[in-house]
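Retro notes, item 3 of 5
We never archived the inputs for the uracil complex last cycle. Fixing that now. Sequence and ligand:
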Amino acid sequence: MVFADGSPDADLMFIGEGPGFHEDKQGLPFVGAAGQLLNRLLADIGISRQDVYICNVVKCRPPGNRDPLPDEIESCKPYLMEQIRLVDPKVIVTLGNFATRFMLQRPTAISRVRGERHPLDGRVVIPTFHPAAILRGGGDASRQMDAIRADFREMAAALDEARTSGPRVEEQLGLF
Ligand code: URA
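Structure as it came back at the time:
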């Protein structure tokens, strides 16, 4: 089982699809090539991997890296819901279609919703491309790379705003 990596106190949570070969071997999410790209994108906006929380929709590697099946997503759902509840992040970034559909609860294409802030239960969900999709290349790879960079900047801005707005004075004083 590949559960999570990073800080349980993080304000920023990343949700991927499911472990791949290297993640399965090491028991940690995003340690292969997609993880290297994730680390680089984070470094570009001045955030270190140790300060964020990283997990996946499904906790075990789908054989042969196939897409996770609906019943696998359903079985892992209580774990992910509890991870969100306990870490209590201000901003959740969903990487790729599976995590985005899980969080937004609708069948949507990542290209339609990426980079937008979706308010959800007092948090902000920002979908973006899965780093592995960019690494697979193809005609759109450089446009997708520009897009994911822009989404990471948006994510940093959303995080700054959420941190500076903070709890209301009444809440800080314990009046409510
Ligand atoms: N891709 C994912 O979605 N998750 C990982 O942990 C690694 C690659």
